């Protein structure tokens, strides 16, 4: 995932990913009424106050994704990038999707079961494009990520360079700023104004990490940090209802965003390079499957046992169970099946390349013979200076 050219893994980035996932988990388990049947503020009077901002873990994910995906595309072809993403995302996704479907079908307590047609469409991970319901509500972020991958694939067609990444940051910032005014559906869909500041800042942070920090990159980061504040009220309303905008202070959300930017900035500047704890690598590996399975399955378990197990014990036990299940998915499905899928797709791409007809070079015309100037020998003619494009 995140490695320096020297081979040192960015373990702190893995740890931050798990922290972001746990923020989302506790938001769903402690701040929402659905698994408990009533407002959880009476069950968790103190923890509830912090957990209701846990949805910001998604924004932290997007910030990390901008950093990591920019790293992933560097020096790769579009085909290589597609292979890495498909083999990374789909095995755990399919496992989580099917497991969630089975659990909700058997115990339709905290979540409604979906039709098999909806489940089949969800297998493509493209259900967000035709408004098909998600089998698990957390899947909406995957479609956002896929649009980001498509944007990066376009950059790859032009070449992933320092200059082109800066152009992307500028063009994307302008598009995200203008999208709400222009109200063009296609522009809004791909500019993603609510989440673009996090992806763009992540890209700028990776450029600092790969090269070095400078005023241009810091200007991009600070601009994105300011733009990220625009949609805090919107995200509060989406996650906690419109009444939350007036009832809740926004400063905790702003503080979390600033802290996330500061941590990624410190990672980009190498402040945590010496931290190479192996358990952080494992923690990073658990993040994706944990995110995929925790919501509907975890809420179903909480709803089922809420009257027989004390609430703090229940939340702790369900979270631990979800971590164990995430580890099993990673070890038994994600790693072996991902390896097989990666090798299979590489063979397929190699096969396509072998069967693509190479372009034929146009026949070169021989230069017409120009007679030597009077009084000049044929071999003494001085060639005319040639302008090379390397000098332009």
In brief, what are we looking at here?
The chain is an all-alpha fold and 392 residues long. It has helices at residues 11-31, 47-51, 56-73, 78-106, 116-122, 140-158, 162-182, 185-191, 196-210, 215-227, 232-240, 243-247, 251-268, 278-305, 311-355.
Mean pLDDT: 89
Helix content: 55-70%
Structural class designation: mainly alpha
Counted beta strands: 0
- Largest β-sheet summary: none
Protein topology:
Blueprint: H1 11-31, H2 47-51, H3 56-73, H4 78-106, H5 116-122, H6 140-158, H7 162-182, H8 185-191, H9 196-210, H10 215-227, H11 232-240, H12 243-247, H13 251-268, H14 278-305, H15 311-355
Protein described:
The chain has 392 residues and is mainly alpha-helical. Helices cover 66% and strands 0% of the residues. The protein has helices spanning 11-31, 47-51, 56-73, 78-106, 116-122, 140-158, 162-182, 185-191, 196-210, 215-227, 232-240, 243-247, 251-268, 278-305, 311-355. The longest helix has 45 residues, at 311-355. 35% of the residues are buried.
């Amino acid at each position: 995932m995140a490695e320096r050219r020297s081979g040192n893994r960015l373990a702190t980035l893995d740890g931050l990913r798990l922290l972001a996932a746990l923020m989302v988990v506790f938001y769903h388990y402690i701040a929402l009424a659905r698994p408990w049947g009533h407002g959880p503020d009476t069950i968790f009077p103190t923890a509830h106050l912090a957990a209701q901002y846990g949805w910001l873990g998604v924004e932290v994910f997007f910030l990390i994704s901008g950093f990591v995906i920019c790293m992933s595309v560097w020096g790769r072809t579009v085909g290589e990038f597609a292979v890495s993403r498909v083999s990374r995302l789909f095995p755990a996704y399919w496992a989580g999707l099917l497991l969630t479907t089975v659990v909700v079908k058997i115990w339709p307590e905290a979540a409604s079961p979906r039709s098999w047609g909806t489940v089949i469409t969800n297998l493509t991970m493209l259900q967000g494009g035709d408004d098909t319901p998600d089998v698990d509500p957390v899947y909406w972020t995957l479609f956002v990520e896929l649009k980001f991958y498509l944007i990066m694939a376009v950059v790859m067609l032009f070449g992933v360079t320092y200059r082109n990444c800066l152009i992307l940051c500028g063009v994307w910032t302008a598009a995200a700023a203008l999208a709400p005014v222009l109200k063009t559906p296609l522009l809004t869909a791909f500019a993603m104004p609510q989440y673009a500041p996090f992806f763009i800042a992540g890209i700028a942070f990776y450029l600092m990490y790969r090269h070095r920090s400078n005023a241009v990159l810091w200007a991009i980061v600070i601009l994105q940090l300011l733009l990220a504040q625009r949609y805090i009220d919107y995200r509060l309303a989406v996650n906690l209802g419109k009444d939350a905008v007036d009832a809740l202070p926004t400063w905790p959300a702003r503080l979390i965003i600033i802290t996330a930017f500061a941590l990624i900035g410190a990672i980009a500047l190498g402040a945590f390079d010496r931290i190479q704890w192996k358990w952080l690598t494992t923690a990073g590996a658990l993040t994706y499957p944990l995110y995929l399975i925790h919501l509907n399955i975890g809420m179903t378990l909480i709803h089922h046992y809420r009257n027989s197990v004390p609430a703090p014990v229940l939340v702790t036990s369900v979270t631990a169970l979800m971590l164990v299940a995430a580890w099993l998915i990673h070890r038994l499905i994600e790693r072996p099946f991902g390896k097989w899928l990666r090798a299979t797709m590489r063979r397929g791409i190699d096969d396509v390349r072998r069967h693509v007809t190479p372009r034929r070079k146009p026949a070169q015309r021989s230069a017409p013979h120009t007679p030597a100037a009077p009084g000049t020998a044929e071999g003494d003619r001085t060639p005319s200076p040639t302008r090379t494009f390397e000098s332009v």
